[in-house]
Amino acid sequence: MDEVIERETATFHVTPGYGVTARDLLGYSQAVRIGNRVETSGQGGWDDDLVVAEDLEQEIVRAFDNVGRTLAEAGATWADVVHVNSYHKVAPGSAAIGDEHNRIMVREFRSRLGGRAPVWTQTGVTVLGLATMRVEIRVTALVEGSG
For an engineered disulfide with 53, which of 59, 63, 94, 128 has Cβ 3.0 to 4.6 Å away? Predict the structure, then answer.
């Protein structure tokens, strides 16, 4: 008797605006959905022309907004997020990411997650995809009642 193996189909999602530009220039999608699981690529604090905000607070808020936009394209929201990876540009040899980054990140988590606390891995790096970037955020979401 043949064994039947069921596989869920991956659907790739491109965020209108910056996601189309990234796909066309670099050949990647902003999110993939497999069943009820959504994984995003790293989202920066850029606008639709991939211009990064000059102010750190505006950059982080915009990165959170872009995560939300990308999740929506894949049928998810911040309420579905279970895991966050954030990457923060630091000077070589820095001992920590710093209070300014953390203060803004925590405020945005609290305002968008309604008291939920997903797991979070925070990493300091010396470079990101664009020279002007100081933060990048990627998430995993599990959409309840689907898949």
Answer: 59
Q: Residue 3, SS3?
A: coil
Give residue-wise pLDDT tens across range 59-79: 999 999 999 999 999 999 999
DSSP sequence for 33-92: EETTEEEEPPEESB-TT-PBPSSHHHHHHHHHHHHHHHHHHTT--GGGEEEEEEEEE--T
CB atoms within 10 A of CB 30: 26
Residue given tokens 């925590």 in the structure block: 106
Structure tokens at 134: 């100081």
DSSP state of 131: T
Helix (H, G, I), strand (E, B) or coil at 133: coil
Radius of gyration of the chain (CA): 16
Q: Report pTM.
A: 0.91
Tens digits of per-residue pLDDT, 21-46?
999 999 999 999 999 999 999 999 99
